[in-house]
């Protein structure tokens, strides 16, 4: 098995590509609270049985008002990255609105992955009905998204950032909503720019989905 671990200092700095970087520690607590409340709003709107047109119209107007208020400030540049410190002293970059793990994305669960003791990464996340596919179950596309994020992060931390060239998912058991999902991934081997990575989701210790992936590391100009 060949895994070329690369110190964080040798990984590409997004600033070199013109991408702004926000320190995770600098994200205001109030913005985190807002993100959480908007997620609760999405879940509540998706599930409300309210039918009174006056109540619904009032809610829509209130949401429009707060949207306009926040839109008064400039939008973030597309590709804005967030840098975070990892518990092992390493650090990593990710897009701040990443749909799976983005700190400021109310539609993201969000999934937080950290290096695992035996290598690779692990994280735990519990999904609500925003991610529902079949009744009471996580949408298969979202299962793939969680696994994509896990294999991408494992590859990025063990080598350097890359794009998913291939992702194969086996859905072994239904993955339930409102249950802690244990997500793990680790690099199996590397071959030039190709990084072969395996990942899985467990519920109560049982594998519900597993993935094999090939990440292709991005070429950084010298
Ligand atoms: C910019 C600096 C900023 C740094 C900070 C970054 C922070 C990120 C950190 C952490 C992120 C972790 C979280 C992310 C998780 C989510 C990941 C996603 O959602 S990725 C989006 C979906 N994927 C795409 O959109 C790819 C689309 N495809 C492509 O762009 C190209 O096809 C690409 C880059 C994959 C390869 O293209 P080529 O031109 O660069 O390279 P070629 O020469 O074609 O391939 C290189 C090797 O890979 C093999 N290969 C390519 N595609 C393959 C495939 N589909 N299956 C098998 N092998 C494949 C080839 O056969 C070749 O292998 P041989 O070395 O010759 O043996």
UniProtKB/TrEMBL annotation:
CDD domains: PaaI_thioesterase. It is a peripheral membrane protein. Its EC number is 3.1.2.2. It catalyses: decanoyl-CoA + H2O = decanoate + CoA + H(+); hexadecanoyl-CoA + H2O = hexadecanoate + CoA + H(+); octanoyl-CoA + H2O = octanoate + CoA + H(+); (5Z,8Z,11Z,14Z)-eicosatetraenoyl-CoA + H2O = (5Z,8Z,11Z,14Z)-eicosatetraenoate + CoA + H(+). It is found in: Cell projection, Ruffle membrane; Cytoplasm; Membrane. Residues 136-205 form the Thioesterase domain. Its main location: membrane. Keywords: Apoptosis, Cell membrane, Cell projection, Cytoplasm, Fatty acid metabolism, Hydrolase, Lipid metabolism, Membrane, Transit peptide. It is an enzyme of class 3 (hydrolase). InterPro entries: HotDog_dom_sf, THEM4/THEM5_acyl-CoA_thioest, Thioestr_dom. Belongs to the THEM4/THEM5 thioesterase family. This is Acyl-coenzyme A thioesterase THEM4. It comes from Nocardiopsis changdeensis.
